[in-house]
Protein 1
Amino acid sequence: MRETLGTLDIPVRYRAFNVGEVPGLPYLLYYTTDNQGTLKADNHNYAKVYNLTLELYSEEKDLELEEKLEALLDMNNIEYDTFESYLDTESMYEVAYDITI
């Protein structure tokens, strides 16, 4: 996943950046959520399932970057739901993508 997200040419990190290493905006965080599991049938595990959240942070609403990320997800046949919020205390936008792969 990180390799795929790296094609966006913005900093990408799993879960969080280390203290003192947070880059300038925009950047992207991703992490697993909920339980991971497997698709099963006929007493076999056919595929692992990962529930992930991608969080895109930007100083201003960046439709072009969001469209680029969504095109990347679409190109890789990854379904997603999006949620947006403005973080007053951080003065930045967050667009979260919930995905299952």
Note: The chain has a mean pLDDT of 92.
Protein 2
Amino acid sequence: MYIQYEVADKIATITLDRPEAANAQNAGLLDELDAAWMRAAADPDVAVIVLRAEGKHFSAGHDLGTKVPDDLKITLDLIYANESRRYLEYSLRWRNIPKPSIAAVQGRCIAGGLLLCWPCDLIIASEDASFSDPVVLMGIGGVEYHGHTWELGPRKAKEILFTGRPVTALEAEQTGMVNKVVPRDRLDEETRALATKIASMPPFGLRQAKRAVNQTLDVQGFYAAIQSVFDIHQTGHGNALSVGGFPILVNLDEMKAKIE
């Protein structure tokens, strides 16, 4: 089990529970996480969803330590199928759940970790939190759910991608990516207080407000851009495969089934 799930006072709390690996995302964690999101979405007793993490760091991103057998032929179509479902479809689905969601972020949030917090409606960060996407070092132009331009603005997004440097919590608050920065020891308390306040609002009004903002972003091109940049992202994998490859997150059982 990689995820904890509990409901209290109309708030569903989903907790990443792989602290020994800095909550790095293997296939099991992502599948359990998606199931938890869907459970909260379907529960009429849940008004607000909180995503948090155990340990020092929110998420170190994709688990690049996943071992791939030497006899398993990794092809771009298999990578595309896996990433399309787990990295793009999951994130878009979480974004569009018709209930408010809040991410509580501490420590490092690296690359794939952004796919977990960016789909949330609000982000509360601890003072020690930082956000980064250093995958240009791997010959890729950014993680699969490419919300950089929307979250940071175009020039800041380019700076962060070009250099790989982390964005501090305060800097993220200044760009509007983070709603509030709080001391580390008050992160859960502050997140819970905000969730409680939101949970007291009429559910229909909350749903309509969220839909209005998300649809405005979609009209501006958010959804189309996310989809098109995901395809561009895959060319990085194709290039990597052509020159010897690099560690990638895969579900070995699924991939074996596709080639057997």
Note: Residues 3-259 form a domain with the 2-enoyl-CoA Hydratase; Chain A, domain 1 fold (CATH 3.90.226.10).
